[in-house]
Every structure is written in C-alpha cells, then in structure tokens.
Design brief:
There is one protein chain. It is built from 16 helices and 7 strands. The chain is an alpha/beta fold and about 350 residues long. The chain folds into 2 domains: about 60 residues, Transferase, Pyrimidine Nucleoside Phosphorylase, Chain A, domain 3, CATH 1.20.970; about 260 residues, Pyrimidine Nucleoside Phosphorylase, Chain A, domain 2. It has a 5-stranded mixed β-sheet with strand order 1-4-5-6-7, sandwiched between helices. Strands 2-3 form a two-stranded parallel sheet. A hairpin with a 2-residue loop joins strand 6 and strand 7.
C-alpha cells in the first residue's frame, strides 16, 4: 500500500473539502472511495477520510457515491429464486447482544421467504453474522455454486462480504483500527450481491436511519423497513417503540411498531447480552429448539418484521404468528441443520 498520499488525486481533493467542513458530491465520494478500494490510497488518507466523514456526518450524496464505487467492483450473484430478502444491521449500537438478524433470517426462510443474507465478521458488536453462523455449523464461504444450490433448494444462503467485495480488503486494516462505525458500515447493507427486492435494515440512531432510508429509496428497492429500536438497538426491540422508516415506491414513510402490535412481552436490551460468538450461537440454537425467553421474543419480532417487508404477512401480529409457527413446528431448526449440511457439500 502506498506510504504517502497521492498528489491531488480524488482522495486528496476529498480530504481538502472535508478539512473545510464541506460535503462531497456523489462524484467526489465515488472517486475517493474508488481510489481506496482500488488499493491506491495510503492508510493515513483512508483513516482521515473515514474520520472526517464521521465527525461531519455522512450525507445522502456521500453514501450514494460510496455505494456506487463498491457496487461497480462487486461480484454479483444471480439468485435462482425471486424475490429475495435480506436482514441486516449496520452495527454500532454497542449492545453486545445476540445476533438477532441472523436468527431472524433463518426463521423468515423457514416461514417461506427467500433470504440472501449478506454479512461479514463483527464490525462493532460481539459477533458478526459469519462469526455466529460458523458456530452454528454453516460454511460461510462455500463458493457461488453451493450458494446457488442453497438458495434454490433451501431458500437461504449467506454471502460472505469479502468474497463478493474483494476490493474492500484495502480498507479493512484501517477499519479494524478505528474505534467507531464508518461509512463502510452503511455501504454493506446497500451492496448485497443479489440486489434483493426486500430489506430489513437495523440502524442505531435516527440520523443514520434517514440516511439509509433515502439511499434505499434512491436505489429502487421494492420494499424496505429501516428500524431503530428502543435503547438504541439496531433491530426491532421490545422494551418500547421501534421507529420505522418504511420505504416503498421510492417514498419514505415514518411508522412506529410497538411491542403489543407483535403480541410479545417486553424485553430489555440487557437480557440479550452475550459474551462472544459461541454464546450468541447457543442462544439462537436454544430459541430454535423452542426455548421460551428474551431471545425467542426478539427473534420473533424481527422475523415478523422481515415477513411483513417481504409481503408474507399483513402486519406485525400475523408476522409473529407465522414466525412462531416456523419455530414451534421445528421447521426453523430443521432448516438450519439442512443448511449446515448443504453448505459443506453434504446433501
């Protein structure tokens, strides 16, 4: 990697603008991020760029430009079944909680959705999707042929971000050293290689929710819900209202989902805390084995929300009922077992 900043390249120009507290155009952001992911930027420049955006606050144009740069370089995957749903969180809530989005993906698929979950190792939480799935026995990087089989036969697959976005490795080292969420945490949910029609995206605060919802509307997603839970959770929560930005037809509509709409009991965020990926996987496994408790309730709420977004449930209560049936019938547990086997090439 270069040891000095390039002379007046796109990243240097972007840094000069950020240094004057200015915002970048779509083109400026696209070109600066392009320089980073093409491996032409120094680490000091990458760190300054990401920190400058964080301090200033990313704009819609900056996020759109970054997404364009990353999408231009990603390896796409054509799903044999459509439409496709993705469930993910941006991280950054600091809750160190069970990986709800991963569990919700499994339950949603067992309830009839086709889920292509796009994720990585932990960016800011205790365990990222891939960390947990490995401990649940799922191969996280089996190759496109196996992924296509998983989608075709099971209706679920995990797309390991580094395999589809190899260019992002040039920013990975800097990201690991920075103690805060960066622009790339926002890009991830917008760069699923299957380009899903439906998305449930969790973000930890209202500013990021607005940014994400606007980006999804601009990118033409069929339907999405950007959710910010109570206690700053980046998922649907059950200790109070979950703020929702509903994206459909290019428009964004604010909504609120309350615990009672799901027919589920209150759950405080502290009841979802886990120590490590193994602990998170164990909580998910127990929930899929029909253990009643906080993890099950929040998994049901998020799976219900995903089913509503995917058009498979008319509202939170119906979604929760369908999600509960998927667990209590054993479908979700069996799907996980079959997924683990097929991901390793075993029928």
């Amino acid at each position: 990697m270069p040891s000095t900043l390039p002379d007046r390249g796109p990243l240097t120009i972007a840094l000069a603008t950020l240094g004057e507290s200015g915002s970048l155009s779509i083109e400026q952001a696209r070109d600066a991020v392009g320089e980073i992911v093409d491996g032409r930027a120094a680490e000091v420049g990458i760190a300054a760029f990401l920190a400058g955006l964080k301090v200033k606050g990313e704009t819609e144009d900056e996020l759109a430009g970054a997404v364009q740069a990353v999408r231009d370089r990603m390896r796409p995957l054509d799903s044999p079944r459509r439409p496709v749903l993705d469930t993910c969180g941006t991280g950054g809530d600091g809750a160190a909680s069970v990986n709800v989005s991963t569990a919700a993906a499994i339950v949603s698929a067992a309830a009839g959705a086709v889920v292509a979950k796009h994720g990585n190792r932990s960016a800011s939480g205790v365990s990222g999707s891939s960390d947990v799935l490995e401990r649940l026995g799922v191969a996280i990087d089996p190759g496109p042929e196996v992924l296509t089989r998983c989608l075709e036969e099971l209706g679920i697959a995990f797309l390991f971000a580094p395999s589809f976005h190899p260019a992002l490795r040039h920013a990975a080292g800097v990201r690991r050293q920075l103690p805060f969420r960066t622009l790339f945490n926002l890009v991830g949910p917008l760069a699923n290689p299957t380009r899903p029609e439906f998305q449930l995206v969790g973000v930890p605060n209202d500013r990021l929710a607005g940014l994400m919802a606007s980006a999804l509307a601009r990118l033409g997603v069929t339907r999405a819900a950007v959710v910010t839970g109570p206690e700053g959770l980046d998922e649907v929560g059950l200790s109070g209202p979950t703020r929702v930005l509903w994206v459909e037809g290019g428009y964004v509509e604010p909504r609120t989902w309350l615990p009672e709409q799901f027919g589920l009991p209150a759950v405080r965020a502290e009841a979802l805390r886990v120590a490590d990926p193994s602990d998170s996987a164990d909580r998910i496994r127990r929930a899929l084995d029909c253990e009643v408790g906080p993890a099950r309730h929040v998994i049901l709420a998020n799976a219900a929300s995903a089913l509503v977004v995917a058009g498979l449930a008319g509202g939170p209560a119906e979604g929760a009922s369908k999600a509960a049936e998927a667990i209590d019938s054993g479908k979700a547990r069996d799907l996980l077992h079959r997924w683990a086997a097929l991901s390793h090439g075993r029928d």
